Amino acid sequence: LSGLDPAQPYFQGTPIEVRLDKSDAEFVDVIHTDSAPTIPNLGFGMRPAIGHLDFYPNGGEEMPGCDKNPISQIVDIDGIWEGTRDFIACNHLRSYKYYSDSIIYPDGFLGYPCASYDLFKEGKCFPCPEEGCPSMGHYADRFKDKVKNEFTKLYLNTREAKDFPLWRYKVSVTLSGKSKVKGYANVALYGTDGNTKQHEITKGTLKPDNTYTAYIDAETNVGDVTKVKFLWNNNWVNPSLPKLGAATITVEVGENR
């Protein structure tokens, strides 16, 4: 059984006979996309973990792309009816859109087991554990033989619009150069299955010999990494023409460690 943002009003906190529960089937997976409190936030979806696997994309409360202004949302690419529904219940309806996208991306939507979304964002629950990470949506049941008895909360990020899946990488850059400069450093990943756009690793003061680490959610699963492109920019004309390089770049893939 797959719960697509099961309802909060009249159901949350009720006995298990009334609502969706892990005892309802051999395997129950749940996608939570609108779990902010109904009062005052108008969240339609249930917050507690209730299945064998509970996925909280983007933290489970506010979905990226749902904060567009009402006019652009109602006059939607999929038509006014679709746009109006999205305006009224955008977070709630993301659950079925993620699910339908998950059918097309068997390697996408990896959920990282974690105690909270804040810890996930800080990279504390990276990479996937030895047994791997389950996939949110259609292919969640590939993980059912690895499910533990207690509730498992899983976190991941998605894109703002279709296609929704993102792939998580940890990128560490050690800088080389003679003097510190202000600016930003970006990295793009290239691999056997595609490449990513540039992702910011750090900005502010860039110091040679320092190592900067970022967790990037890439819009492409690059496969085996074959090349990394490093770019830095100091945002304004500097007459001393400082030079800055990358001494080492380490890329860790969340999925296979």
UniProtKB/TrEMBL annotation:
GO biological process assignments: lipid catabolic process
Protein's pathway: Glycolipid metabolism; Glycerolipid metabolism; triacylglycerol degradation
A molecular function GO annotation: lipoprotein lipase activity
Gene Ontology cellular-component annotations: extracellular space; neuron projection; zymogen granule membrane
EC number: 3.1.1.26
Family assignment from sequence similarity: Belongs to the AB hydrolase superfamily. Lipase family.
Record-given protein name: Pancreatic lipase-related protein 2
Organism from which the protein derives: Nesospiza acunhae
Gene name of this polypeptide: Pnlip
